């Protein structure tokens, strides 16, 4: 396997609300390798977006990173000062937000928004260099050269999302985090945006973490997938293997519920309701909905183990040989 | 065949901009839909944002009036119905909307919406009967009454809230349910359960469904027939299985080909080579012309009529001009 770019170990994030602490990210560990596309999938409230914010060190009170390390090359991002982290954002690790949402400033032309991001890292860069860089970025994400002179409201959803990608890659980061970049877009545009992201990633040689809930998009885009449930990683493995033989019961059910174009009117839901992060069930957070739950699942939190080469599963009933 | 609901060549034009502006937006043009009284059906209305699918839903529900064409329920035009007829219509045609949070009043417990329906339509004479009706409806959609009643909307998950809405629609024993993107805001693990309860309304209670969606996979899963809309125009319409499995209109082909299949072994091979600007169109011809890989000169000059390529399918595209022309109304009756 190629070299490790990002190494996350024992990451914990809690939100302190008036009703108690919400353990949004609970002891999460994973690695991201050079040039790789990793999918981080989970239902709403599973903590996937909180992981992204934690990696960017953008968790704000009442949220707090409580332990763990996020090692990017030789640097532990968790230990950096605010100023050091500010310099690392965009240039080493960057975030591509949901462009259709309020990610862009509505009263500022696109070019000034991108220029701001560049200038924040390189105060001495000339205007001419910035303009050249913006033209380059537009070509890279497949936007017309008039776009920098436009306001966000003049752009379609897909174009806005491409502007967000351009901004995310303006300093050629090593790691790109893309948080649901296509969830508000129609399928055709979604496909175009994902093509753009794949293309840009390949050219920069950056590693990407794609966060989302759409298993179809994951299947089409990523190399490996990490499945979250109620703040914990349930399973991590190569995408083809996970789809072919999911090991964790949650992943099995999740893949079985996907509607396909093969069979009609066969709906299989996952019984029960998603676990509350405010009062998570003891033991494995998935045990109340798990068809294979055993007494120990209600008590012991299963540790994530590498049950086969490259396949990590946090489940008591999965052993090394078979599921 | 007795038509229960008929949309006859309905169009909807909105004036956009201020009241001095003369700009018009054609949200829907010449769409027809027929729901048979004797044979319940599930019809999908599919398309991307701006395709006019929600406009069609609102026309069917009588929330807005068509600019041209008619919407009839039991042979009566919605616009000229008597009070009594309107009351029957309001009871027999129910809606389920996209956002299962916004339809609730956050200050009331969830059963408020159920009680209101029972009260308005005088469905129960005694409190015991009322409670029994509510319990029955909730159980049908897979909710336990004791875990659901007495709670506030925010205490239920999105999936549960949406199922309460299905239960509310069910209470009124409707003939037709119009479901506008009922699962697009619900998590994947709960989506299947809601679609299952919608399907149950059709199989067990003989309720016809009009399923409005941008998701072709669930449309395929659920529906017998489908209407594909593109910027207000009917692109392709008819038998759902045929259209999804063998799409004919270049737009339908593009859409079906872009579905992200949940199978990492079948990946999209090459990048799409179509215009990046999504909202083109306009002009006097086919609205898809600017993005169409098969575009010819005539496409830019005149709107293509519907050509009947199969007994129960029609396509609005000049590629099929050797087939007989058909009105949207005639074809809508062929698959009803």
How does this model look, in words?
The complex is a heterodimer of chains A (323) and B (336). In chain A, the strands form two sheets. In chain A, strands 7-8-9-3-10-11-13-12 form an eight-stranded mixed beta sheet, with helices on both faces. In chain A, strands 1, 2, 4, 5 and 6 form a five-stranded antiparallel beta sheet that branches. Chain A has 323 residues and is of the alpha/beta class. Chain A is 29% helix and 24% strand. The radius of gyration of chain A is 20 Å and the shape is globular. In chain A, α5 packs parallel to α6. By secondary structure, chain B is α/β, with parallel strands linked by helices. Chain B is built from eleven helices and 13 strands. A nine-stranded mixed beta sheet of chain B has the order 6-7-8-3-9-10-12-11-13, with helices on both faces. In chain B, α3 (111-120) runs parallel beside α6 (158-171) and α6 runs parallel beside α7. Chain B is globular. The mean pLDDT of chain B is 87. Classes of the chains: A alpha/beta (323), B alpha/beta (336).
Briefly, what is this?
By secondary structure, chain A is of the alpha/beta class. Chain A has helices spanning 48-55, 82-91, 110-119, 127-141, 157-168, 187-204, 215-221, 239-244, 249-256, and strands spanning 4-17, 20-33, 37-41, 63-65, 69-72, 75-76, 93-96, 175-179, 207-212, 224-229, 232-238, 305-308, 311-313.
């Amino acid at each position: 396997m190629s070299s490790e770019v990002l190494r996350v170990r024992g990451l914990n994030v809690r939100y302190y609300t008036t009703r108690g602490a919400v353990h949004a990210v609970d002891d999460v560990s994973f690695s991201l390798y050079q040039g790789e596309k990793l999918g981080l999938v989970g239902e709403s409230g599973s903590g996937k977006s909180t992981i992204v914010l934690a990696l960017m060190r953008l968790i704000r009170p009442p949220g707090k990173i409580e332990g763990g390390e996020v090692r990017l090359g030789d640097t532990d991002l968790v230990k950096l000062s605010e100023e050091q982290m500010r310099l690392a954002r965009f240039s080493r690790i960057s975030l591509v937000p949901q462009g259709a949402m309020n990610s862009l400033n509505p009263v500022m032309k696109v070019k000034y928004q991108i220029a701001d991001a560049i200038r924040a890292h390189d105060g001495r860069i000339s205007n001419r260099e910035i303009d050249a860089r913006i033209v380059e970025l537009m070509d890279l994400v497949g936007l017309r050269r008039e776009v920098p002179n436009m306001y966000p409201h003049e752009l379609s959803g897909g174009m806005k999302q491409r502007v967000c990608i351009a901004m995310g890659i303006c300093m050629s980061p090593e790691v790109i985090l893309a948080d649901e970049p296509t969830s508000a877009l129609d399928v055709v545009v979604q496909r175009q945006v994902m093509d753009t992201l794949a293309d840009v990633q390949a050219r920069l040689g950056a590693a990407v973490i794609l966060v989302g809930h759409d298993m179809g998009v994951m299947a089409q885009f990523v190399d490996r997938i990490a499945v979250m449930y109620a703040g914990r990683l349930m399973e991590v493995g190569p995408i083809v293997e996970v789809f072919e033989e999911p090991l964790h019961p949650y992943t099995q059910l999740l893949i079985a519920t996907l509607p396909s174009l093969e069979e009609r009117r066969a709906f299989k839901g996952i019984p029960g309701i998603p676990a509350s992060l405010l009062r998570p069930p003891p033991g494995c957070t998935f045990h109340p909905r798990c068809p294979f739950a055993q007494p120990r699942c209600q008590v012991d939190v299963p540790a994530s183990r590498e049950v086969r080469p490259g396949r990590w599963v946090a489940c008591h009933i999965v052993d090394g040989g078979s599921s | 065949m007795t038509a229960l609901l008929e949309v006859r060549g309905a169009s909807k034009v909105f004036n956009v901009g201020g009241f001095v502006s003369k700009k018009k937006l054609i949200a829907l043009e010449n769409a027809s839909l027929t729901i048979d009284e004797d044979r319940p059906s599930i019809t999908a209305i599919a398309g991307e944002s701006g395709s006019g699918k929600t406009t069609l839903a609102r026309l069917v529900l009588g929330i807005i009036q068509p600019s041209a064409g008619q919407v009839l329920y039991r042979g009566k035009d919605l616009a000229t119905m008597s009070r009594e007829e309107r009351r029957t219509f309001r009871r027999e045609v129910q809606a389920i909307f996209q956002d299962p949070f916004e339809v609730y009043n956050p200050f009331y417990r969830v059963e408020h919406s159920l009680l209101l329906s029972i009260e308005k339509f005088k469905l129960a004479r005694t409190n015991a009967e009322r409670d029994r009706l509510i319990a029955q409806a909730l159980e049908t959609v897979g909710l336990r009454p004791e875990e659901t009643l007495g709670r506030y909307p925010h205490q239920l998950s999105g999936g549960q809230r949406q199922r309460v809405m299905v239960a509310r629609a069910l209470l009124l024993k409707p003939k037709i349910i119009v479901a506008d993107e009922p699962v697009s805001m619900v998590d994947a693990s709960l989506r299947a359960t809601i679609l299952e309860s919608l399907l149950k309304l059709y199989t067990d209670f003989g309720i016809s469904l009009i399923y409005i969606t941008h998701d072709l996979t669930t449309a395929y899963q659920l529906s017998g027939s489908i209407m594909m809309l593109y910027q207000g125009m009917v692109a392709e319409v008819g038998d759902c299985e045929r259209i999804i499995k063998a799409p004919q209109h270049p737009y339908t082909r593009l859409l079906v080909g872009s579905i992200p299949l949940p199978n990492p072994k079948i990946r999209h091979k090459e990048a799409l080579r179509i215009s990046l600007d999504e909202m083109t169109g306009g002009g006097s011809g086919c609205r898809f012309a600017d993005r169409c890989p098969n575009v010819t000169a005539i496409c830019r000059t005149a709107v293509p009529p519907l050509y009947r390529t199969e007994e129960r399918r029609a396509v609005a595209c000049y590629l099929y001009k050797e087939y007989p022309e058909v009105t949207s109304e005639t074809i809508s009756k062929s698959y009803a």
